[in-house]
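2024-03-11 09:14:02 INFO worker-7 job=invfold-0412 stage=load source=structure_tokens
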């Protein structure tokens, strides 16, 4: 026997006694089937290696089909069959509309095709095409809380074509429909093909108009690329508000043409700034994803950095020590409402904000005013004395009200000069929203964003604001603050708002239940005044390295609550979809934190402890 024959015999014996041939070496010994009782995909071992198998991806599309959708649509009828299609045979037909709208819709489909195509490669043998037709008025005014985000989506298979019909009154509704459509597609690793659910009727629209993320980029600078990643992730769960807390006492990174030295003094480093081009790019990037940008110039507290460029008397308590006597975190700094020239500077800043963002809503901040800081200023105390006032709480509330009214008037003046409609103002809950002082605020001019602890039924804020007729945004600290549950940074132990807020508590943060629990007298009217809510990520202990793992997938949990409203139910009903959506975020390049280990992902429902 020759050497060659010996090698051949040895190799033959190797292949003979292998449990699976080399050709099958990389296929799976598992298949997934739909358990009709639990309505979950169950992993089972194949009886033999060449038995027909179904991938988890394909099973999830049909067991039941809504398992893959986030947020769950308002109304849907979904089939239970999938069709393989050729990703290179995707067409989009759009009526005769503006070139800009058509381009935006084309780009929305291209983004989705690119993300789907990144999952794998097909052999190109499928000749089934995906034909997307988009109709309706498709209005594309700047995104706002008044925009119509509703859409209808119908998927039907006809011979070698999967036909998709999308109808929407605005571009934003059509964009949402495209997101839903591609959530009903998958790459099947078992057959190396792209598949789509081929039978669906969906009619969908959000319950609340305001569904957002509040990002602080002042405590730690967040690069534009990371902000865009966050905007991408928001669009995948149809969130529509990016609330940008862009300045604070720590930094002022926004470059302004009228006050160029503000960023020169206020930025951490020359490369840690937001240029005019950056801002316009972010606003446009957000709009393409159905997101409006609400800029926040927090004042009269939370200021200091950048104001070195103007008269030093315009800010009081700047970096004063010991800081804990003059503010809630270092460095201290508050505007001086008694300095008349300060309002001229403030007007210039507001005018730059309005020119750059052209917002329909402008956030004025307004929280955590430290009266001890103002009390330490001779100019402020003298201003109060000249008006027959003293140094009690109600006296400092008097000057705060003066500041608030003057600041709002300057915003209106700047808007008029720019030829813009004056934006609706939003302020955080504060002393101004307590029963004794809420008369200072006009419900027709201001929205109120709650950050109070909604579980504290002794706090009168929520009841008082609701009964006073204000539009409300819920960012209550007990459920929506994403920076909680970490170590202390001004002391040992845990940080001030611990514990960590898991996605489950965020998912069940129902504004209507909060209103009811606070015994609001005008419950029906108050419910109509709920705009929605935001999760908030403050960045004292967060930077671009950890941002997305703290934001997602918890932001997505609130996104579904706000999209579906009271119909969202309990977190257990959403658990398998939440886990699947986190996988979608990961697959699309979002640095979302893991919710479970992969065994739980592949064995749906087996890791949850049964409810007591």
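2024-03-11 09:14:09 INFO worker-7 stage=emit residues=612
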């Amino acid at each position: 026997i020759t050497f060659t024959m010996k090698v051949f015999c040895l190799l033959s014996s190797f292949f003979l006694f292998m449990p699976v041939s080399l050709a099958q070496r990389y296929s799976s010994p598992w298949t997934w089937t739909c358990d009709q009782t639990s309505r979950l995909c169950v992993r089972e071992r194949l009886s033999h290696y060449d038995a027909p198998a179904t991938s988890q991806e394909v099973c999830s599309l049909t067991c039941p089909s809504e398992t893959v959708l986030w947020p769950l649509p308002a109304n849907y009828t979904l089939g239970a069959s999938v069709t393989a299609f050729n990703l290179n045979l995707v067409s989009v037909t759009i009526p005769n509309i503006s070139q800009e709208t058509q381009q935006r819709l084309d780009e929305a489909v291209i983004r989705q095709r690119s993300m789907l195509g990144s999952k794998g490669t097909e052999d190109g043998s499928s000749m089934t095409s995906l034909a997307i037709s988009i109709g309706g008025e498709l209005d594309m005014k700047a995104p706002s809380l008044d925009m119509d985000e509703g859409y209808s989506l119908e998927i039907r298979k006809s011979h070698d074509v999967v036909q998709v019909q999308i109808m929407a009154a605005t571009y934003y509704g059509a964009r949402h429909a495209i997101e839903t459509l591609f959530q009903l597609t998958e790459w099947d690793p078992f057959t190396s093909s792209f598949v789509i659910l081929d039978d669906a009727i969906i009619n969908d629209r959000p319950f609340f108009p305001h569904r957002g993320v509040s990002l602080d980029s002042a405590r730690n600078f967040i690069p534009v690329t990371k902000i865009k990643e966050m905007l991408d992730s928001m669009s995948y769960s149809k969130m529509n508000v990016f609330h940008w807390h862009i300045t604070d006492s720590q930094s002022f990174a926004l470059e302004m043409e009228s006050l160029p030295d503000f960023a020169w003094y206020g930025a951490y480093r020359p490369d840690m700034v937001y240029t005019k081009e950056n801002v316009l790019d972010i606003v446009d990037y957000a709009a393409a994803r159905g997101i409006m940008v609400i800029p926040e110039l927090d004042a009269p507290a939370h200021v200091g950095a950048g104001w070195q460029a103007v008269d030093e008397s315009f800010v009081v308590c700047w970096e004063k020590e010991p800081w804990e006597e003059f503010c809630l975190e270092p460095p201290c700094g508050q505007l001086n409402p008694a300095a008349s020239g300060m309002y001229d500077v403030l007007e210039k800043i507001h005018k730059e904000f309005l020119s750059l963002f052209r917002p329909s809503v402008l956030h004025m901040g307004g929280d955590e005013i430290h009266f001890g800081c103002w009390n330490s200023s001779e100019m402020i105390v003298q201003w109060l004395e000249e008006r027959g006032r003293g140094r009690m709480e109600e006296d400092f509330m008097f000057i705060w009200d003066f500041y608030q009214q003057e600041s709002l008037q300057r915003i209106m003046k700047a808007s008029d000069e720019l030829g813009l409609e004056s934006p609706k103002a939003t302020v955080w809950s504060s002393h101004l929203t307590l029963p004794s002082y809420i008369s200072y605020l006009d419900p027709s001019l201001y929205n109120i964003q709650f950050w109070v602890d909604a579980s504290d039924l002794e706090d009168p804020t929520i009841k008082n604001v609701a009964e006073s007729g204000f539009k409300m945004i819920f960012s209550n600290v007990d459920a929506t603050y994403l920076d909680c549950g970490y170590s202390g940074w001004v002391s040992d132990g845990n940080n001030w708002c611990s514990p960590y807020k898991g996605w489950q508590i965020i998912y069940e943060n129902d504004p209507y239940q909060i209103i009811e629990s606070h015994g609001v007298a005008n419950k029906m009217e108050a419910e109509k005044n709920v705009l929605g809510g935001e999760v908030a990520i403050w960045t004292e202990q967060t930077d671009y390295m950890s941002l997305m793992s703290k934001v997602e997938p918890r932001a997505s949990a609130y996104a579904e609550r706000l999209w579906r409203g009271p119909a969202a139910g309990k977190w257990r009903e959403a658990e398998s979809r939440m886990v699947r959506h986190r996988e979608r975020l990961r697959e699309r390049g979002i640095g979302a934190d893991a919710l479970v280990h992969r065994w739980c992902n592949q064995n749906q429902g087996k890791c949850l402890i049964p409810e007591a």
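2024-03-11 09:14:09 INFO worker-7 stage=report msg="Confidence is low (pLDDT under 50) at residues 1-26."
2024-03-11 09:14:10 INFO worker-7 job finished
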